[in-house]
Amino acid sequence: MAAKTTRTESNRTDPSGSALRTNLLSWTALAPLVAIVALVLTWGRHLGTLPVIIVAVALAAAVLAAVHHAEVVAHRVGEPFGSLVLAVAVTIIEVALIVTLMISGGKDTASLARDTVFAAVMITCNGIVGLSLFVGAVRFRLISFNAEGTGAALATVTTLAVMTMVVPTFTTSAPGPEFSSSQLAFAAVVSLALYGMFVSTQTRRHRDFFLPVAQDGQPLDDEDGDEHADPPTNRETYLSLGLLLLSLVAVVGLAKVESPAIESGVAAAGFPQSFVGVVIALLVLLPETLAAARAARGNRIQTSLNLALGSAMASIGLTIPAIAIASIWLDGPLLLGLGPVQMVLLALTVVVSVLTVVPGRATRLQGGVHLVLLAAFVFLAVNP
């Protein structure tokens, strides 16, 4: 501990900026730069097997780098603001991927937005939540979180999901599971309004509802959940913010480069075309999953839940309005309504999530139930 304190003090008092130079030479700084170079060299070109593998490695490195830099920024700003940083960043990636694939895919991608957003909801509410609860409970047996804040987030996610993905199945103004233009505009405005109200509640009026709690349910004084680590300096924070943005650009671009390989792989495996949306959601939510699991290992379950439900909320509340605007220039219909099996899985997820959240405490059983629901979703996505 003394060695760590001495190293931190020397970094702060070193006028030559040697600590900053060390950060610039780390893999987390080099990975986004290498990914950008790979993007420039491969953009718009037909790739063979080896280049596709290289691009995939660069893409994975950029994702991991994005996780690191988002956590640095999150550590500086503290909870719950830190959770918003990664949630919004991931949503930017998701929107960019959906729009670019819909532009290149034409009418065959009419349901891509729905498939991706629904997959994001299932992955966050079952995968990330389940993994966080399971990891935390295995290590600490019984884990605690703030039921008030988590319940409010879950209610917002449920309302957004039903309004944008269940209601279109039953409306009659347009043929098929889609909104009319006015209905789509209303859904977009409602989504933005709900997301804005939640962010205001989370960051201003009831911020304590979303802070990590101790075993007795009381908010922790240490908001970032790591009392042993000093927050990064302003220079380190700005550097990480810049590298985070660079990583996001690289991830979006390289994912677009990889998209033909993804679509070909899905088709070669005999999976439905809708499974492309699942692959996109798994890719863009990897940073959230890693960050949430790491927080759970540190007994910061509330941070994990903030990340999971915040990502689900952003995936709907920001993606649907963006897609609604993009649909002005996109050809073909925009199918948003879920099918019967998907609605059953969504309803079951909501019921189980409510039962998980209400007590404010959980064991590995609750985590296991959510993970089984995720497995059911993936299996039925492959075998509808």
From TrEMBL:
<feature type="transmembrane region" description="Helical">
    <location>
        <begin position="24"/>
        <end position="44"/>
    </location>
</feature>
<feature type="transmembrane region" description="Helical">
    <location>
        <begin position="365"/>
        <end position="382"/>
    </location>
</feature>
<feature type="transmembrane region" description="Helical">
    <location>
        <begin position="117"/>
        <end position="140"/>
    </location>
</feature>
<keyword id="KW-1133">Transmembrane helix</keyword>
<feature type="transmembrane region" description="Helical">
    <location>
        <begin position="183"/>
        <end position="201"/>
    </location>
</feature>
<dbReference type="InterPro" id="IPR004837">
    <property type="entry name" value="NaCa_Exmemb"/>
</dbReference>
<feature type="transmembrane region" description="Helical">
    <location>
        <begin position="238"/>
        <end position="255"/>
    </location>
</feature>
<dbReference type="GO" id="GO:0015385">
    <property type="term" value="F:sodium:proton antiporter activity"/>
</dbReference>
<protein>
    <submittedName>
        <fullName>Ca2+:H+ antiporter</fullName>
    </submittedName>
</protein>
<feature type="transmembrane region" description="Helical">
    <location>
        <begin position="305"/>
        <end position="329"/>
    </location>
</feature>
<feature type="domain" description="Sodium/calcium exchanger membrane region">
    <location>
        <begin position="52"/>
        <end position="203"/>
    </location>
</feature>
<feature type="transmembrane region" description="Helical">
    <location>
        <begin position="152"/>
        <end position="171"/>
    </location>
</feature>
<feature type="transmembrane region" description="Helical">
    <location>
        <begin position="50"/>
        <end position="69"/>
    </location>
</feature>
<dbReference type="Pfam" id="PF01699">
    <property type="entry name" value="Na_Ca_ex"/>
</dbReference>
<feature type="transmembrane region" description="Helical">
    <location>
        <begin position="335"/>
        <end position="358"/>
    </location>
</feature>
<dbReference type="GO" id="GO:0015386">
    <property type="term" value="F:potassium:proton antiporter activity"/>
</dbReference>
<dbReference type="InterPro" id="IPR052946">
    <property type="entry name" value="Alkaline_pH_Ca-Antiporter"/>
</dbReference>
<feature type="transmembrane region" description="Helical">
    <location>
        <begin position="81"/>
        <end position="105"/>
    </location>
</feature>
<keyword id="KW-0812">Transmembrane</keyword>
<keyword id="KW-0472">Membrane</keyword>
<dbReference type="GO" id="GO:0005886">
    <property type="term" value="C:plasma membrane"/>
</dbReference>
<feature type="domain" description="Sodium/calcium exchanger membrane region">
    <location>
        <begin position="240"/>
        <end position="381"/>
    </location>
</feature>
<feature type="transmembrane region" description="Helical">
    <location>
        <begin position="275"/>
        <end position="293"/>
    </location>
</feature>
